[in-house]
Amino acid sequence: MNEKLVQLMADLDEENTIALVKELIEKGANPMDILDDARSAMEIVGKRFETGEYFIPDLMMAGEILRSISDIVKPLLEGEGGGVKKGKVLIGTVAGDIHDIGKDIVTFMVDVAGYEVLDLGIDVPVETFVEKIREFKPQVVGLSGFLTLAFDSMKQTVEALEKAGLRDSIKIMIGGGQMDDEVRKYVKADAYGKDAIAAVNLCRQWIGG
């Protein structure tokens, strides 16, 4: 782990973070190690948010830095998977919830693992999930939520997919701060993931790759 990179990113020092990423790549660092450090930094950011040290704008800033790193590093990884995507994953934070740090990390890690990801963003209405699943035809749908009010939004989203006749063709995973197996049963999802690595493993299990 590159402690300096993790620290700079966790402290939201965008300029020096990006400069260090470029320097590491020039020196031949493994792109996956850089992504791993970025993930570690995002976890620190998440903890600082939970303890009240960081606020929503800080999370958005961290997300921007993550996207910038992703833009630099991802082209270096394309060759590894031969550029062919293994399957489609649709992800969004459910209606009423605006937390996106966990979702961004999952989107990032699933993308890097070689899947085509459509991220619908935050506070996504039930109808949008239905419409985009019809268009995008993913094998896996990830519902993200940090607040307890997200439980009902997740349940309503799954019920809407059942009504639309889409439920049987997809696997649904949920994730976020308060998620556990009881919540999974309540919302009628297929699985819950405690972190981004769990989400990637579920995609591998369900889609392959």
Describe this structure in words.
The chain is α/β, with parallel strands linked by helices. It folds into two domains: 3-81, Orthogonal Bundle (Methyltransferase, Methionine Synthase (B12-binding Domains), Chain A, domain 1), CATH 1.10.1240; 88-207, Cobalamin-binding domain (Rossmann fold), CATH 3.40.50. It is 57% helix and 11% strand. The chain has nine helices and five strands; from the N terminus they run ααααβαβαβαβαβα. It has helices spanning 3-10, 14-26, 31-50, 56-77, 101-112, 126-136, 150-163, 181-187, 196-207, and strands at 88-93, 116-119, 140-144, 171-175, 191-192. Helix 8 links the parallel strand 4 and strand 5 (191-192).
Q: Summarize the main sheet.
A: 5 strands, parallel
Q: Find the CATH topology of the largest domain.
A: Rossmann fold
Uncertain runs: none
What would the principal axes of the Cα set say about the shape? globular
Estimate the helix proportion, in percent.
55-70%
Structural class determined from secondary elements: alpha/beta
What is the CATH C-level name of the largest domain? Alpha Beta
CATH superfamily of the largest domain: Cobalamin-binding domain
Order of helices and strands: HHHHEHEHEHEHEH
CATH architecture of the largest domain: 3-Layer(aba) Sandwich
Number of domains in the coordinates? 2
| Number of separate helices | 9
Distance between the termini: 26 Å
The percent range for strand residues is 5-15%
- Report strand order across the widest sheet: 2-1-3-4-5
Oligomeric status: single chain
Please tally the β strands and state the result: 5
Integer-rounded radius of gyration:
17 Å
* Mean pLDDT metric: 91
